[in-house]
Fold these 4 entries.
Entry 1:
Amino acid sequence: NAGVTQTPKFRILKIGQSMTLQCTQDMNHNYMYWYRQDPGMGLKLIYYSVGAGITDKGEVPNGYNVSRSTTEDFPLRLELAAPSQTSVYFCASGSLLASSYNEQFFGPGTRLTVL
Amino acid sequence: GENVGLHLPTLSVQEGDNSIINCAYSNSASDYFIWYKQESGKGPQFIIDIRSNMDKRQGQRVTVLLNKTVKHLSLQIAATQPGDSAVYFCATQDAGNMLTFGGGTRLMVKP
């Protein structure tokens, strides 16, 4: 299993540009998450999904959109990039089937810079 | 909202010594606690977890202690090795299955 994969690894955007961060998992997990991590800080939840066709806002959803058309994929869309969105973005997946609690598996991250 | 924080932002230890990383949380409804290790340029990696009905859990060289009375969590690493150098995050999970992460502690192991 590849686990959670993210593309691209790095990206530089100009203010106002748009892009999609890709995330794929091959563990058949129901739950998927997008976090952002600012320098020296912990992770903040942007959006999450409990299954295909279902998405919900996290702590910091403004400026982002997501979709979950399949179990495997959970892309994150930035429509109008702003410097405040400069961060490292982590995708994670998890399943409550494995236990009563949600052990999340993280991808390697996408480092995004908005200039 | 939930506040999960760490007491020390950086911890420097000698190779072979034991390390203790602390974490305070504020939500008494948290029922699951996890420690993650994050190496430079990588995503967080699960280390060990503990449920609220336990106060201690041991893994390989790692022990997590939970004190629900004072809402405190600690990670103990025995015989710290250079490969343990990383940022360590605690996270709590509430009934909604969402994780709230602390700010992280950087562990530096001196050879």
Entry 2:
Amino acid sequence: EVQLVESGGGVVRPGGPLRLSCAASGFTFDDYGMSWVRQAPGKGLEWVCGINWNGDSTGYADSVKGRFTISRDNAKNFLYLHMYSLRVEDTAFYHCARGASGAGMNWFDPWGRGTLVTVSS
Amino acid sequence: SYELTQPLSLSVALGQTASITCGGNNIGSKNVHWYQQKPGQAPVLVIYRDNNRPSGIPERFSGSNSGNTATLTISRAQAGDEADYYCQVWDRYTGVFGGGTKLAVL
């Protein structure tokens, strides 16, 4: 069974850092690009960033560019999101999602259940 | 930046057809994907590349895309179809989602 499980969420003060992890199983991880998508409580979906199959190509939403870094460890089947200079408006559930190819710029399937990040003083 | 516009809400009678629109500048030139999200759950892909259904998605779900509008059509709506629906495209290496449509089945 293809599965994505996020972890690492929690409460962090504005300006602080946090690292999220996504454990992938049930498929050949390095065949696929991956993305992080977030959803503020009660709000819609927002694409955050993406990475291709081998990590040499990444892209970011303007709202997080320069503050967030996406990376992957294909040997361990893990995706990461390193978040810095966090803002109150970064409060959201963060989902990892698999792209449909190595580049990853297509549809997202499947998605993880998400991990909640709360930025608050 | 590229924007996708969806109606905030839509209601459909049980057994009838719901059409959820997704508007964007020349969206017909892009591949559009649709997701269903029920409360407390992760989004699920229901249509990819305009009009393709993943395995396990009922034939009642279909899609179209032309000009400035893409449409997700749900035929013979069931109570279990009540959910939020999001369209999604890629624009200049950036993922873009519509604001989402809450579908109520009456």
Entry 3:
Amino acid sequence: EAGVVQSPRYKIIEKKQPVAFWCNPISGHNTLYWYLQNLGQGPELLIRYENEEAVDDSQLPKDRFSAERLKGVDSTLKIQPAELGDSAVYLCASSLGGMRSNEQFFGPGTRLTVL
Amino acid sequence: DAKTTQPPSMDCAEGRAANLPCNHSTISGNEYVYWYRQIHSQGPQYIIHGLKNNETNEMASLIITEDRKSSTLILPHATLRDTAVYYCIVRAPDGNKLVFGAGTILRVKS
């Protein structure tokens, strides 16, 4: 069974440029998460989707960050414009959802460097 | 979600048991204890979880004290591939959010 797929694995951009990250969750997983991980820290939740609905986006900086999961399967996280402080690893995870969400499966992440 | 406290780092000799402690003194009665680990350049990986009873799976054992204020993750025979950051998380059964702390860096040495 394929795990959570993310692309690209690495991205280097200049500040003020836009950037997008893509995630394909494990087949059948209704819940999808985007996390941000700064160097030396644990991941922090940005947004959680139940199918195509964003049910928790309280930590998403909405002035520059946006996300979508149009058909309730794969998802895109966008930053526009990127700032130096956005340099981090962006992790996508998925789970079955609801009370069956004992285990979240994480992708390898996208490492973003903003110059 | 209740907070957890873990030592920042630990060393373990290869082949020996690694015992990783976690304090969660404010844990609520319905909150589970979860352990994840993150190997360098990879996403976090689920290890084990428990509520009150001790749990064991193919990866590790979880020992939870009777008052549930602390727990220990045990890797019975640590290998070099177990070198990673280990996160202890408490989470309500209906809560989808994982709140990660800084975790414990475990270094397994030959």
Entry 4:
Amino acid sequence: AQTVTQSQPEMSVQEAETVTLSCTYDTSESDYYLFWYKQPPSRQMILVIRQEAYKQQNATENRFSVNFQKAAKSFSLKISDSQLGDAAMYFCAYRSEDSNYQLIWGAGTKLIIKP
Amino acid sequence: DTAVSQTPKYLVTQMGNDKSIKCEQNLGHDTMYWYKQDSKKFLKIMFSYNNKELIINETVPNRFSPKSPDKAHLNLHINSLELGDSAVYFCASTPWPSGKNIQYFGAGTRLSVL
């Protein structure tokens, strides 16, 4: 069975600095998708970025980018120029092409932004 | 316009009561989900419906019963509420097939059982 591990329960970063959140996963499949979701204090789960495993190029969305290392089964999220509004829980998630497209979630990393 | 809406946002009730949480999506998606998020923020899938058909039914007490009257709605009914049911419940939806598709989440329902 697939698993997703986020080894950092909490991270903090100074405003305007860069922070990297780590995520590793375990799978025997070759085709799958990886996601980072953000959950601010408002509780709303919001997609941050998505990566298809068959794509070698790392996904980028404005200040958010990933370092996808397929062989190492690593999918870290880099946030550049951190802003106060980035403070949230960040969840890494995995989805295979089968298993009814169920998302497998990591335990989350709480990101604190210091002004 | 809210894409995935859940009601109520907060629900406080006594042990032993029966309660329902409603979810509606106006995105035209085929697949809907219920998740439970415990106090440690861990997200756990409970159920998934695709076009009114149950496709994921994880190991949850049978006091929890989902109902999908149509593909835009997925409600969650909980019988004989227990203290351990206190959590935030999220509804989500996605198009089918949904391998790469994004799941859109509702704002969550915080259930407190006293």
